[in-house]
Amino acid sequence: MRTLLFSLISLILFGSLEAQKAHPLLNKELLLRDLSKTMIKSRNIEKRTEASYTFHKEMKFLLQNPISRKYPFDSLGLISQVESPDKRFRIFTWELSMGKSRFRHFGLIQIYNKKTPVVISLNDYSDDFKQAEDSIAGRKHWYGAFYYNILLKKSLFGKKYYLFGWDLNDGKTYKKLVDVMLIKNKGLVFGSKDFVMDKKHIKSRHIIEYKYDAVAHLNYDPNLKMIIYDHLIPLNDNTDSEMVPDGSYEGFKYKSGQWHYIEKIFHQKLSDGQAPIN
Predict the structure, then answer these.
(1) Is the pLDDT reported for residue 271 higher than 90?
(2) What's the confidence (pLDDT) of residue 5?
(3) CB-CB contact of 217 with 228 (8 Å)
(4) Which residues contact 202 (CB under 8 A, 6 or more apart)?
């Protein structure tokens, strides 16, 4: 009985290993996994930078291969991989620590088609925007972020993808944002006048900034069908004080192709552990 059980286990393990070895992208993925560990965890800035640029180059080349379309890249747990709800594309994003509280974002978008996937590199411009919430630009002026969710809405202008992301900013404060992406014939467009704060103020994207050790939320709630985020207040009376959540929530409700600002979502403040969203 034990011999039979051992044989079955060995057969399953051997078959699993053989299946993995059989995939032509496996060895490449393992190389990318090692590079991702170096670019995120190494204490040497030169090694981190070299690994990040090599990862970007190798990953872009790999994503252009048609057989990568359904490959999961499961071992790349240190970078973000988010697929659009309509299965049209997926985005890979990661952050590189440049030292002295400086971070740079990297992004690759793999757009599926019937033949060779279209792969687009994103250039992080977030530190150079003068009015980040009002800008509309292409891939060379991307507000870099580590994405964790994508929401799809259909409009008269085509499909709009709302990208929810996280930004380490300067290390002293973090940021979370919801951006808008449209796929056009001439390329990608980031930003759209969709966030209506009032009749005179409509933003292209929405950004919150908060103290690095605070926990702030910004995401879409499918039950409420709203974008919900923490209301932030100054930590102390200083004019330049960092912002922290106070337990209440603001948000946006979708109406007629735009997101309209809601000042207060709930009528009572929520204590720690009672946040309605992740």
Answers:
(1) no
(2) 45
(3) yes
(4) 193, 194, 195, 196, 258
| Residue 17, pLDDT above cutoff 90 | no
pLDDT tens for each residue of 53-76: 999 999 999 999 999 999 999 999
Q: Which two tokens stand for residue 271?
A: 């204590």
Residue type, 94: W
Residue with tokens 């279209």: 118
Q: What is the mean pLDDT of residues 69-90?
A: 96
Q: What was the pLDDT predicted at 22?
A: 59
User: Is 80 exceeded by the pLDDT of residue 138?
Assistant: yes
In the numeric block, the tokens 């440049």 are attached to 98
DSSP state at residue 6: H
What token pair was written down for 249? 């929530």
Residue 87 amino acid letter: K
**Short-list 135, 263, 108, CA closest to 193:** 135
| Mean of per-residue pLDDT scores for the chain | 89
pLDDT at 16 over 50: no
Distance CA 43, CA 52 (A): 13
Tokens of 45: 């800035």
* Whole-angstrom distance, CA of residue 271 vs CA of residue 97: 33
**What's the token pair of residue 106?**
């990297």
Q: List the one residue out of 174, 182, 131 whose CA is nearest residue 156.
A: 182
Quote the distance between the C-alpha of residue 124 and its chain's center: 13
